[in-house]
UniProtKB/TrEMBL annotation:
Catalytic EC class: transferase
Reaction(s) this enzyme catalyzes, per UniProt: L-histidyl-[protein] + phosphoenolpyruvate = N(pros)-phospho-L-histidyl-[protein] + pyruvate
Span of domain PTS EIIA type-1: 25-129
Highest taxon above the source species: Bacteria
Classification via InterPro entries: Dup_hybrid_motif (IPR011055), HPr-like (IPR000032), HPr-like_sf (IPR035895), PEP-util_enz_mobile_dom (IPR008279), PEP-utilizing_PTS_enzyme (IPR050499), PEP_util_C (IPR000121), PEP_util_CS (IPR023151), Phosphohistidine_dom_sf (IPR036637)
Domain HPr: from-to ranges: 170-258
Location of this chain's protein in the cell: Cytoplasm
Chief location bin: cytoplasm
Chain's gene name: ptsP
Cofactor(s) the protein requires to work: Mg(2+)
Entries under PANTHER family matching the protein: PHOSPHOENOLPYRUVATE-PROTEIN PHOSPHOTRANSFERASE
Protein name: phosphoenolpyruvate--protein phosphotransferase
Amino acid sequence: MHDNKNITLHAPLEGPLLPLDQVPDPVFAGGTLGDGIAIDPLNDCLHAPCAGTIIHIARTRHAITLRAENGAEILMHIGLDTVQLKGEGFTLLVEPDSQVVRGQPLIRFDLDYVAQHCTSLITVMLLSNSDQYRLLPCTTRPVTLGQAVLEVEPKAAAAKSNTGDNAGQTVRGRVHIAHQGGLHARPAALLRQTAQGFKSRSELHVGDRVAPLNSLVAIMGLGVGEQDEVEIVCTGPDSEHALKALLAAAATPSVGEHAPASAAVQLKPKANHEAGVLNGVCASPGLASGPLARLDGVRLPDDPGNNEPGPQHQALDAALSAVKAAIDADLQHLKGKHGDAAEIFEAHLALLDDPSLVEAAHQHIEHGIAASHAWSQAIDAQCTILKALDKPLLAERANDLQDLQQRVLRALLGERRELDLPPSAIVAAHELTPSDLLLLSQHSIAGLCMAAGGATSHVAILARARGLPCLVALGADLLALAPGQVLVMDAEQGHVETAPSVDRLHEVELARRQLAERRKQQQAAAQVSARTRDGRVIEVAANVASASEAADALTLGADGVGLLRTEFLFLDRHTAPDEQEQRSAYQAVLDAMGERPVIIRTIDVGGDKQLDYLPLPVEANPVLGLRGIRLGQVRPELLDQQLRALLQVSPQRRCRIMLPMVSEVDELLEIRQRLDRLAAELGISERAELGVMIEVPAAALLAERLAEHADFFSIGTNDLSQYTLAMDRDHAGLAARVDALHPALLRLIDLTCQGAARHGRWVGVCGALASDLLATPVLIGLGVSELSVSPPQVGEIKARIRQLDTSDCRAFSQKLLGLASAQAVRQACRDFGIREVHTRTSTLTTEQ
Ligand code: PEP
Ligand code: MG
């Protein structure tokens, strides 16, 4: 249902304002399309005038319609006669059906290009269902971006009958929340994401309290615990489907956020009675010593009040966009590497879009409060709600809000964070946040200590994932310690020693060295190539996205780069990298790998990874659309440029080119011909090998034919799972089921290896399955001879390979092909591991 309330429309552009009847176009001026206003723009990006849903985008990207929460449909048309530009000069920044917040950038356009090729830049904003609403102008002067320009009031009669296409049944259902810890940030984000998949409006009811399912803070604010009963209410055209999906999402347990698996874990610290000892709670085990360093939050300058709202709205919107862009960039790096961290930062992105939070801040601004204070107050209010719930897990989620409070404040105040930490510092703070941890992990710190905080907070999860000792709830005394003071932290025992003796420091240092020695031995073994017990060499390469990651991988023992995702060069910038820049970047990766081979995958954008400078048509099913090698067919110049850069790196014998998303032989042949033509043009005779990713079922089924022309295969199990199982690889609710150990995938891998073997080609795996220790015997058994894994896992995977025997693996993997589910395969893999250890132990005993 629409809420029938008045809404304010804010200027989507800045520039002089014109009444509609002065627009030099009779269709707009005559009001045929609806009532509204026009702006002659001075800036190049159209922003959302209010929060709402994108209900239509012109194919040619020059016009967009948004439905506000009161049902008003706002059409914005950039320039006059711009349809004839066929999309040239316009870059879409949102997708159809997406929810947008007020001020969110919608379409970027090339001012000069549009001005030169069209009648006018005058941009119209009108209500396409204006028969149901009254428009009350707020201003007639030139407007700044985000300034209030119109009030939209539902007409009384319309209010009664206004059910629009959002009409439909209201349906409701009750469910017990199965998520461990209740509806904290990640399960709340899952419900929100599920609700977003439907047109209906959905709400969560608990007693007499209600939260709209588009707001993470509102959901968390209800304080719903594990096994609490809630009611879900959906209203709209697809309400029944929405309800079914939401009930299932609420009733399916997700992987919880576990406290550290330490027997010594306590949830409450011991009192600080002992001199020289601060007691806290272990959030991540480990023993460390080092000088204390403080990390403090942003100090908010005083607000004189009475601020003009327009610029403050703008400043807040700009800061929110900047933080979102920064989180997006972090996510590119974290995805596929640190799953937990990626999920946490995805929840942060959802919080930054949260209508309750953002609207609350904008309302404070309307009262003359500075953007920094408005944002701070909006966050503090939500933190107070979460902390008052008497649910520790939810109270700890206030830490995520504080993280965003700090990040946005820093963006607003223009503060850059540059840390100057002594080596092996023990970092102390009132409470650290996930983004602090991301920043700190770029320095060589020894441990983390917090005066407040909890063992199940996101920052604790991240510390555990990085093996960094972490203590929380140490109390305010921690903050009285002087920077530089040398401490010992024994996280497992839950305490900090503030005045350790020299002997104690030696003892800790000795323990630290012994641990480092063990790691060194593992690493030394990682430098040697991995052979199975019967002598078969399996190459363990690394998946990397830059030259510095390649250098790290080499240090960790990688036998080569099995997948260089070249997207790293193309994302987060406004123009494409030219041939020379690409050539240097690829050469740097080759140089970083010494004498080892490097597989470079051609650009795999499209789908959900869009580039500002490469506008592609809006697609209903982007992952089934123009992505991977298909992009080379629609934008051949882009692929040619990349191929030219690749042909010029040296030595060519160490460079292997790999094509993503190939689904038929002709695609491969076409690229071979292109490479021949480009090499001839460049006068180059040496030629890199050309391989194909097997990540579409069609490619696996055609493996034998592809192997006639490909030099090698590398199986992309991430996409192969997505396309074989028809499950979105990024769908939070399906994450546990998108399992590459599904027998259907194993059959495809088997077919791939058989097809390759017929033509003497080798097969690698570069999807996440290659880094899964349970899968190592299966893949070797099916005939894979190269595993490309995340760099820190090289040593572990090599150690596993050395325990295996090829013929055992072969017999075992053949049996798995007959199983019925991924679960059954996983169980069989676990049993195989146990059986093998027994066999090896008894063989050793007999041999002795
Ligand atoms: C894959 O799909 O398994 C793969 C390695 O490619 P990406 O994850 O980059 O799509
Ligand atoms: Mg892929």
